[in-house]
Amino acid sequence: MFFYLINNKIIALAIFIFCMVKIHSQEKFYPLDTPNFKDTIPQFGIPLKEVVLFQPLKFRTIDELKKYLILRRRVIKVYPYAKLASDRLMILNERLNNLKSKRSKKKYLRRLEKFLYEEFEQELKKLSRSQGKILIKLVHRQTGLTIFELIKQLRTGVKAFFYQTTASLFKLSLKDIYNPENILEDYLIEDILQRAFSEKYLIEQKAKVNYNLDSLYSIWKYKR
Asked: Could you tell me the pTM of the whole model?
């Protein structure tokens, strides 16, 4: 079932995300030999880049593999939105801190919400319900806050409750957190992200909620 934002309330919910809201490649030099200090022969070597190794994922059935590949496609599509939400949140907080009165802050938030509504409406309409669920979790990964908490913090508890009620109509929860230690899908999402960063499919943004992938492998080795 596709997550079409049928009415303005649902569209505003998705847009609101954007209102509110070690893998280092380095060169090393490995000498082939070490000349004597008195020797005038230059030191030879081969510049190598650090290689990141991922433990192989094991799938018991073809269906499990298919589900992983579908999840991968969804994550790669949705992650840039979560990344953008984190960027927007940082800019939003900086500008709000420079505004003195509550009135000017409310006015700024309304203008920003209207701008983002117009900018992202058509793209967000294309998200399926499954993609919407992943987006909610990735926003928590990138910002450290659930969308419910973001709305409550930057607007009001009443607004947060309203949006949560609207989301529940589509079997979504704005209170969902990113928890790869205990939720299999989240673990697979983290694996997909780390591989995508390494292969340059996605541009990595430092997340507020961090997990060590090797530690996650160890946990799920016995859980699955």
From this structure: 0.73
